Amino acid sequence: MSTFLLGAALFLLVNVAVGLLRVLRGPTAADRMLAAQLFGTTGIAIILLLAVAGGESAALDVALVFALLAVVTVLTFVHRFQRANGAGQEEEP
Amino acid sequence: MIADLYTIVLVSAGCLFFLAGTLGLLRFPDVYSRLHALTKADNLGLGLIVLGLIPQVAGWGAVFKLLAVWALALLAAASAAHVVARAALAHGVPAWRRR
């Protein structure tokens, strides 16, 4: 069972790596933010799978914090995106 | 035994939805349709994985935590989809039209 869960976590990790293509290609900043949102949700799923596979129930709290951070991340992006000039320009780090 | 089978089936289905979400994110023609694909991965993919993991954890506290993670991710995805689409619309990102 834990082997299967680890395999599923690995599959999701490959998904995240493939999602990086959208970060590279995405014509607008909103596309890159969508990819970041995917990373967040997939990260939560990976942490859940690893927590159950390894028997560490403390990692469930980590997944909870991750979900909260995902909310803050997207709202922060949109706040900046709305204040930027032009449509989908690169934002300074 | 039944619980293990249930977990394998649901977690596999959840991974399939994540794959569908990633494929949609890569292949759809504009921001708005990519949002559609992303919310499928968020809601259904994560939800199926959470439901599949429920028999594997010990105690009702851990079950509640799993469900709370899913509920928070749902809220995050719903607000994210709404504000990203509204911001993209305000910036004049054109919707894809079939030519």
Structure, explained:
- The complex is a heterodimer of chains A (93) and B (99).
- With 93 residues, chain A is mostly helical.
- Chain A has helices at 2-25, 29-54, 59-83.
- Mean pLDDT of chain A is 82; it is low at 85-92.
- Chain B is built from three helices and no strands.
- At the A-B interface, helix 1, helix 2 and helix 3 of A face helix 1, helix 2 and helix 3 of B.
Q: Compute the separation of the termini of chain B in Å.
A: 53 Å
Q: What's the total number of strands of chain A?
A: 0
In terms of per-residue confidence, which ranges of chain B show pLDDT below 50 for 5 or more consecutive residues? none
The largest inter-chain interface, given as chain pair and residues per side, is: A-B, 45 and 48 residues
Helix and strand pattern of chain A:
HHH
Task: State the gist of this model.
Chain A has 93 residues and is mainly alpha-helical.
List keywords for this structure.
heterodimer; A: 81% helix; B: 99 residues; mainly alpha; 81% helix; elongated
Which SSEs are present, and which pair or pack?
The complex is a heterodimer of chains A (93) and B (99).
Chain A: H1 2-25, H2 29-54, H3 59-83
Helix pairs in contact in A: 1-2, 2-3
Chain B: H1 2-27, H2 31-53, H3 60-90
Helix pairs in contact in B: 1-2, 2-3
